[in-house]
Amino acid sequence: MRSGGGPVDQDRRDRLERLFEEASALPPVEREAFLGRSCADDPELRAELVSLLAASPGADALLEDLGRLVEPPYDGPATSLVEGLQGRYEIEGRVGAGGMASVYRARDLRHGRRVALKVLKPEVAAAVGAARFLSEIKTTASLHHPNILPLFDSGDVDGNLYYVMPFVEGETLRHRLNRERQLPIDEAVAIATSLAEAVDYAHRQG
User: Fold this and answer.
1) Is the pTM here over 0.90, yes or no?
2) Which of 109, 135, 137, 174 has the fewest CB neighbours in a 10 Å radius?
């Protein structure tokens, strides 16, 4: 997983590679404890490893299984959100969901473009709170990195916390891993390195 240059110094990159290889060799259920022990002194390194493991072969099946266990049936976005965004965004349909948010394909009516509208799940929104969310999203808006999508908009509609980013057409990494099961090693290294550098940049910005 080594590549020259980049913002991550060589010692940190070597440690990242070693821990990634060790974590990859463990059953998924044992990785959380391993990361907790190995990265107790460096939460940023732990975040980078989580990103790399999520992009590695085999991660997709685990994520899908967890999603089936915890995700409630889909009944569309909240009516209050749809009404609150009327005239600004037209929601066309849901394209996916993660542990923190549901993602919708939407039309930005002001600018005539398709966007990704990400809405925090109610339990996450309640835990974060509107004030903290809007404060932290300002930091996200200041990020400028080739591997991080820009933030277009964000807000709070009757407790529905949302943010808007570009909608990228094409196959997701998760779907490709489902289809191919394993990427060519050079391509996997390039993707993992890009993820690590983007996470490192974001953490350095605060």
Assistant:
1) no
2) 135
